[in-house]
Amino acid sequence: MTRSRKTRTKSIEDSLPRHIRRLRQIRMEVASEAARIIATEGQHNYHAAKKKAAERIGVSERLALPSNIEVKEALLRYQDLYGGTAHSENLEALRLIAVEAMQHMEAFNPRLVGSVLDGTANQHSRIALHVFSESTELVILHFLENNISFSQEQRQIRWYDGTHRVVPLVIFELEDAAVELTVLQPVHLRQAPPSPIDGKPQRRATLADLQCLLADAAELQPVMECSNPTG
Q: How many angstroms separate the CA atoms of 110 and 130, rounded?
């Protein structure tokens, strides 16, 4: 009888050179620490979180910085492991406030974006909305007419052609949450700005989309037919 020969198969990871495997391990460690920083320390900027993580671990940021996608994946894992009920309740509370904010800004076709939509929000997160107007002044006038306190900021974003654009932000408080409005031209209703995470059009949700998310989370049958939020 022929005796079968046992063979050892190497995974693709095992077949890589040792220094490459070590570099990947370091990137994973930096991504995990950056995710923890974002989740617990109120840091919203992925690049800043990665640099801080690399410094804490004691590695060169030139060699070991993971991609934003790797950090986001690590953040989702962190919240899945450690977020628990507190994370779920905080996310639901922020989404309920987002509903109120979107109703208030209805005239400007609001779209929910960012961490409150994708589920990575924490207690430090702003509720981020895209609103659409021919001018920022019209949005500001809305707040003045309704006697609502607000502040203004600016943000530089990288566009699809590689150029950078400065977009105006209007910030206001609603039920102890900060709501950040990015004011865009109406033409951008057709295509969202690129995501700072992966460069693809940002995922966006209408008010109806958000209400569906809340209904699904509560294990209720939505009143309206839900679609995947895109814009």
A: 6
